[in-house]
Amino acid sequence: MRKHTFAEMLTLFYYFTKLTLKTTLEYKFDRSLITLAIFCREMISVIVMFLILLRFLHIRGWELNELMFLYSFLFLSYSLFVFLFAGVRDFDGMVHSGEFDRFLTRPLGLLFQIIASRVDYPATLGHGIVGILLFMNTAFSVGIDWNLTNIIFYILALLGGAVIQASIFMLSACFSFWSVKTENLRNLIFFNSRRIAGYPLSFYPGIIQKLLIYMIPFSFVNYFPTQYFLNKADAGQFWSGYVYLTPVVGIVMFGIVYTFWNYGVKNYTSTGNSMY
What we know:
Elements: H1 6-25, H2 28-53, E1 58-59, E2 62-63, H3 64-89, H4 91-97, H5 99-104, H6 110-116, H7 121-138, H8 148-174, H9 176-179, H10 183-196, H11 206-215, H12 223-230, H13 246-266
Antiparallel strand pairs: 1-2
């Protein structure tokens, strides 16, 4: 099988996403309602957090706008994640339906096909709009100098956070090669960790801190990138180099999980549900 160049892969990804967008726009009203529902659901969580925090001038040195800036990383990186890696998120459904078997017969990389086959536009917009609103209302009121270096680091941190989340989903997806449906495992690993990561890492006891640094590294999705910009006093509890490592953690974690993924592919046997 001939290896495709990077330019060819980008072109193919463009056509895949364009096709997905056309499919999405066939149901404009339905997709619009889904986008609105996601936006409202996530805004409710933001409003609840805002109302709780409004009763306090600050919590352990963190002011309201700083906490909301921390929260914005979760929404923006997740929006980027579901735009680029929705196929990884939905992988157990592909295995269960037999769609993955179809990918095995094509002269393209398996992981590329899985990534390119799904773009969740409603989730991308729903989470992205919430993230942008939080960012615009906090990023210029917490004392950050938005010079070129900081802008570049912010973009890299969002990309790294998206890759970290993709790696967490991909880890749970790997178990689909043996148990097919892994939705409960995915929810246990990802969404519970994401909920905890909505607050500064220093709020939690040591065992939770170690979990979110070394096991399920959500702290690199929002807490350490935020500390790069704000340098709060509680950052002294942790190694100072952590604030720069989000892109590195994303690359290393993805590489480790990808090795496990390849092992799963080699041991995969069809579910026999393919309709293609």
